[in-house]
Design a protein that fits this description.
Blueprint (H helix, E strand, L loop, with lengths): L2 E3 H8 L3 H10 L5 E3 L2 E5 H6 L25 H48 L1 H10 L14
Antiparallel strand pairs: 1-3, 2-3
Helix pairs in contact: 1-2, 4-5
Length: 145
């Protein structure tokens, strides 16, 4: 089992030594102490979400593609997609509720107009109902001169 110092592991994974050290301190990566130096195995780096590159250690250049060392990005992206879908559903429900509100308000205005018409001029209401249901507000009885 090949083990690497924290600096070597950081170079192979393309991250800072401090990032590896923090993972060890938090218990995300298990390490061993050999000759006074903290060491991490390659399999432990892989288990921790890193993608250690093989090859010469110590060239100072980070290797590999950007990666998610803690494995936290994928769940966050999935959650973001779920929340975006939920947001879209809420927007649709809001539009439907607004449409219903406008329709109900219109019906209420028409019902009030019919009620006023029935109180003021019952005969005129009968004529307006004959001309078209729900159009009482638009009906004006003929003027008598």
């Amino acid at each position: 089992m090949e083990t690497l110092t924290l600096s070597e592991a950081a170079k192979r994974c393309g991250v800072s030594r401090k990032a590896i050290a923090r993972k060890v301190e938090r218990g995300v990566l298990r390490s061993v102490l050999v000759d006074g130096k903290r060491r991490v195995s390659l399999s432990e780096l892989e288990r921790g979400g890193y993608q250690p590159q093989s090859g010469a250690v110590g060239d100072g250049e980070p290797h590999g593609e950007p990666h998610d060392p803690t494995g936290a990005i994928a769940p966050l992206l999935a959650r973001l997609e779920r929340l975006a879908a939920e947001n879209a559903r809420y927007r649709l429900l809001t539009e439907q509720a607004e449409s219903l509100r406008v329709q109900t308000e219109r019906e209420l205005v028409e019902a009030r107009a019919r009620k006023r018409c029935e109180i003021k001029a019952p005969n005129a209401c009968a004529r307006s109902a004959f001309l078209g249901a729900g159009k009482a507000a638009d009906y004006a009885p003929p003027k008598i001169s």
